[in-house]
Amino acid sequence: MCAFQSKYTENLSDKKTLYAVEPSVYIVGAGPGDPDLLTVKAQKLLAVADVILFADSLVPEQILGICRQDAEIVRTANQTLEEIVAIMVEKVRSQHKSLVRLHSGDPCLYSAIHEQMQLLAQANIPFEVVPGISAFQAAAAKLKTELTVPGLVQTIILTRISGRTEVPATEELASLAAHQASLCLYLSARHVENAQAKLLEHYPAETPVAICFRVGWPDEKIKVVPLNQMADCTHQENLIRTTLYIISPALSPTTGRSRLYHPEHSHLFRSSH
């Protein structure tokens, strides 16, 4: 067995994993909400961490069931960045504790970790980022669909519409819609009429839209409607937050086929038939 394989295998049943032996901050993606969709590494860290900083407005409480019973749980929905970082610095530097900062989804998407990492680096506090499954991936699995269908669509765009946080002019929604790719629209339910209008500039009105509310939570809702009904459905369901839209021709019945497993396609591991 390779060294890197044995390193992880030998720790799968051992809660005293390598990841939490030193006082440090671990910025962990909690995934879309289902505790079973946490990565193995995230589960290990939650099982041993001394302190959990819990984004309680965005991460379901069930995930805390993995934590140590004596772990200190700090809810952060009502705290500022400065207050959160101050806790991190105090727990790691002064109290020599391991700390998990839980974020919903994957930390690289709309999680505001950039400024956290800058402040931690300035304070000379060690940190590590652990990825998580994003809502668009969990939603595609629930929909039993592939968002890149050969001959139909081969690009996925992850974006949002301008709101309190401005989107750069070069990334304006209507210009991205011109690609007619599989477009995953985050943080836009409060501006759904505007989003629908911009999308309709380029997508056909009948393009399927999956409206995905709290994917992976016990109260999740997923509805697929034509693009021209996107705003009406959002209002009927009273969705104002924690909603992802997937606009894609891949949500329609398709007949595309990948060359990868085609009998006439050869590659490094298989000769053509």
Summarize the structure in words.
This protein has 273 residues and is α/β, with parallel strands linked by helices. It folds into two domains: 3-130, Tetrapyrrole methylase, N-terminal domain (Cobalt-precorrin-4 Transmethylase, domain 1); 135-251, Methyltransferase, Cobalt-precorrin-4 Transmethylase, Domain 2, CATH 3.30.950.10. 25% of the residues lie in helices and 18% in strands. Strands 3-2-4-1-5 form a five-stranded parallel β-sheet, with helices on both faces. Strands 6-7-10-8-9 form a five-stranded mixed β-sheet, with helices on both faces. A hairpin with a 7-residue loop joins strand 8 (208-213) and strand 9 (221-226). Helix 3 packs across helix 4. The radius of gyration is 21 Å and the shape is elongated. The two termini are 33 Å apart.
Provide the fold topology.
Elements lengths: L2 H7 L15 E5 L10 H9 L2 E4 L17 E4 L5 H14 L4 E5 L9 H10 L4 E4 L4 H9 L12 E5 L12 H5 L4 E5 L5 H8 L8 E6 L7 E6 L3 H7 L6 E5 L26
Helix pairs in contact: 3-4
Query: How many domains make up the coordinates?
Result: 2
What's the number of extended β-strand segments?
Answer: 10
Strand content: 15-25%
Structural class: alpha/beta
CATH class of the largest domain: Alpha Beta
The 3D shape can be described as elongated
Helix-strand sequence: HEHEEHEHEHEHEHEEHE
Rounded Rg: 21 Å
The mean pLDDT is 87
Task: Please work out how many helical segments DSSP would assign.
Answer: 8
Spell out the CATH superfamily of the largest domain.
Answer: Tetrapyrrole methylase, N-terminal domain
Q: What kind of sheet is the major sheet?
A: 5 strands, parallel
Find the CATH topology of the largest domain: Cobalt-precorrin-4 Transmethylase, domain 1
Low-pLDDT regions: 1-21
* Terminal residue distance: 33 Å
Report helical residue fraction: 25-40%
